[in-house]
Write a structure and sequence with these properties.
Rossmann fold; single chain; Dehydroquinate synthase-like, alpha domain; 2 domains; binds zinc ion; 14 helices; binds 5,6-dihydroxy-NADP; 6-stranded parallel β-sheet; 390 residues; alpha/beta; globular
Length: 390
């Protein structure tokens, strides 16, 4: 295990009904908020109006930018930032799924420091511009998935460049406060709920699979999060109104990327950059849907280069029978993941997502263009994993 440093300054208010504290908590961050949200869901559920009223009750003014689309675009962030500057907003509230929350982080940067969002994105051979000032951020997730509410990362799409890339900056884009009220996720439809669950699982699985192998406590923590997501995920698919399941999934989502489960591993992220290459071209595919399609093929590759960790998963998640060994154990683990993915209503391959084989080479090139080669992979292996997902 590597030495580690954990820094997480987010004040997280978790639990059913916590949304009622939105005004009181917002008041500690500023006088006028720009509320950054999606086009439909927060209007439909009444949450947007409710939040505005909760702010008003505490004397906090607000303006709304309700134009964020899934896989948020640089132009949307820039429009919301211009609104924030014009209206004299002194802090940002991200209200919605990961897309709205990440967009809020982008607004904090662009409204605070000026320029274009892509100036702050680092790419191979392109140093990002330093973020000078960023506005304080409050996040209110309505979907359990990204963990954006507890981390200093934000992912953006640039449709002109066909790039999906991230800002990661613990000094500038950690939210100051996040309100995680699991009841706000009750309205999430089954498909998005499932996509969120597989995303949470992948957030702890990435470094578990590629990082240091002697992180026993972190391994147990990770397996606990995955088992919780699988058990409560199956439950919530049967009964979307199950508040206990919704709360357990929401807490798993927030904790997954908060620091501890991945600490000391120094592992690499592989499925995420591969998936970001997919959504760079296919904006209609949700992040979680892309992950679900790639994961089985990636596990097959890992079974060849790092079988022990896949064997451990087979034992600890799926209780592999004693006589199932070697390659059979890898296959057993992959089959169980496929079963979970399809049980919760997702596709375990590209074909079912209508992504054709002709895209695999260009996906590989996009991975390399945006982030370089992840982990021990070379281009032929990237193509192998993409093709295996077909
Ligand atoms: O857009 P609206 O109208 O709000 O509807 C959304 C959207 O259609 C809907 N939704 C959200 N909450 C709802 C709801 N519908 C009904 N009831 C509710 N309570 O769900 C749809 C998907 O929303 P989105 O925010 O796009 O989903 P998600 O939370 O999965 O976020 C995905 C984005 O986050 C990035 C992804 O790449 C993607 O761009 N990620 C961010 C990370 C981070 N900041 O740490 C890490 C992740 O790995 C990920 O890359
Ligand atoms: Zn993710």
């Amino acid at each position: 295990m590597k030495n580690l440093m954990i820094y997480n300054p987010v004040k997280i208010h978790f639990g059913a009904g916590e949304i009622e504290n939105a005004g009181r908590l917002a008041k500690t961050l500023g006088k006028k908020a720009v509320i950054v949200t999606g086009k439909n869901s927060t209007k439909k559920t009444g949450l947007l109006d409710r939040t505005i009223k909760l702010l008003e009750k505490e004397g906090v003014k607000s303006v709304v930018y309700a134009g964020i689309t899934p896989n948020p675009k640089n132009t949307e962030v820039e429009e919301a930032s211009a609104l924030a500057v014009k209206e004299g907003c002194d802090f940002v509230i991200g209200l919605g799924g990961g897309s709205a929350m990440d967009a809020a982080k982008g607004v904090a940067v662009v409204a605070g420091s000026g320029g274009k969002l892509w100036d702050y994105i680092g790419l191979p051979g392109k140093k990002p511009k330093d973020i000078g000032k960023s506005l304080p951020i409050m996040l209110i997730p309505t979907l359990s998935a990204t963990g954006s509410e507890g981390n200093p990362a934000a992912v953006f799409s640039n449709p002109v460049l066909n790039q999906k890339a991230a800002i990661y900056n613990p000094d500038k884009i950690f939210p100051a406060i996040s309100i995680v009220d699991p009841d706000l996720t009750l309205s999430v439809p089954p498909k998005q709920t499932a996509e969120g669950i597989i995303d949470v699982i992948m957030h702890v699985l990435e470094e578990y699979l590629t990082g240091e192998t002697d992180c026993d406590m972190q391994d147990r923590f990770t397996e606990g999060i995955i088992l919780t997501c699988m058990e409560e995920g199956r439950r919530v698919m049967k009964n979307p109104g199950d508040k206990h399941a919704r709360a357990q999934i929401a807490l798993s989502s927030t904790v997954a990327l908060q620091g501890l489960p991945n600490s000391g591993r120094a592992g690499a992220w592989v499925v995420h950059p591969l998936e970001h290459a997919v959504t760079a071209y296919f904006d209609n595919i949700a992040h979680g849907a892309g992950i679900a399609a790639i994961l089985p093929s990636y596990l097959k590759y890992l079974g060849e280069v790092k079988p022990d960790k896949v064997h451990q998963l087979a034992d600890r998640l799926f209780d592999a029978p004693k006589d199932v060994k070697g390659e059979l154990k890898i296959a057993f683990c992959i089959e169980n993941f496929r079963k979970f993915i399809t049980d919760i209503g997702l596709s375990d391959n590209f074909k079912d997502l209508n992504i054709g084989m002709e895209n695999m080479e260009k996906f590989a090139d996009k991975v390399i263009e945006v982030g370089g080669l992840p982990w021990k992979l070379d281009r032929p292996r990237l193509v192998q994993i993409f093709k295996g997902a077909f």
